[in-house]
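Researcher: We are triaging several targets before committing to wet-lab work. For this one, the compound of interest is flavin mononucleotide. I'm pasting the protein sequence and the ligand SMILES. What I need is the predicted three-dimensional arrangement of the protein with the ligand bound, expressed as structure tokens, so it can go straight into our comparison scripts without reformatting.
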Amino acid sequence: MTILHIDSSINGGNSASRAISRSIVDQLMIENGGGDVVYRDLAAEPLPHLTLDAFADSSVLDEFLAADTVVIGAPMYNFTLPTQLKAWIDRILIAGTTFRYTANGPEGLAGGKRVIIALARGGFYDANSPAAALEHLETYLRGVFNFIGIEPDFVAADGLAIGPEQRSASIDQALGQSVRLAA
Ligand SMILES: Cc1cc2nc3c(=O)[nH]c(=O)nc-3n(C[C@H](O)[C@H](O)[C@H](O)COP(=O)(O)O)c2cc1C
């Protein structure tokens, strides 16, 4: 098993998405009796915004293609993903490699990988909540990975900005879910 572990929160040691993504990776390693982990911290070492020249460098894409399992820590910033994570997405959605357009529409070419995404959100965005229409993190990431042929799993800690008790309960629930998911 080769795991690509990606974090994107700017919150360092106080980050919920980092704690949950780490728990998922730890559990996967336990369940599979080890494996290789490649770690990419997009906050500590940001990828530059996409340029035409950047398409010549396939190192980020190659790292993604080499992994059979991808674990991503994804906090919600301003109702969507951090720009650091978007810069990574810009390097893995490559026509002809991870997807292609056919006469029948787009076709994903990156199937066969397991992708698990640890979401951390300050509020609640359930389907019937008043803020549901502002949820552009989980919906976006699901759409992106579906587009390249992958159905991602999500572990979510929500309501983290409501107060300390809600935060603690939400993170505990997500950590518990990460154990079940890895099993
Ligand atoms: C710059 C910034 C923007 C944020 N925007 C939102 C937002 O639009 N909606 C929301 O529910 N929470 C928002 N939050 C709260 C974060 O989603 C929440 O603090 C979450 O825990 C961040 O993940 P992390 O703990 O892994 O850093 C924002 C936080 C920051 C720092």
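Researcher: Any quick observations?
Model: The helical segments are 16-31, 59-66, 83-92, 138-147, 164-182.
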